[in-house]
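Weekly structure sync, notes
Attendees: PL (lead), two postdocs, one rotation student
Agenda item 3: pending single-chain targets
PL asked that the sequence for the first pending target be pasted directly into the notes so everyone works from the same version. It is reproduced below exactly as submitted, 81 residues in total.
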Amino acid sequence: MALGITPTQGEVLVRLLEQGTELRLGEIAEGMRLTTPTLSEAVKTLVEKGLVKKLRDREDARAVALSLTARGRNAAKRATA
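Predicted structure, written out during the meeting:
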């Protein structure tokens, strides 16, 4: 994938695109069969690159939800094309 991201990071982008809404970090980790700490490192890079933004979950303030930025949505669409 262009943008210099890993396959794991690309999968996070695609999952968020397919869902069409924000997802909790734990939900994504579970779906990818990864631990939350393992996925947290991948997400950190996506946030730094401006592809994903972290939000406080609306239902549980302790949880972190993820959402695509416009740039992240474009990258995910290119990855699935």
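Discussion points:
- The chain has a mean pLDDT of 89.
- The beta strands are 23-24, 52-56, 64-68.
Action: rotation student to compare against the earlier draft before next sync.
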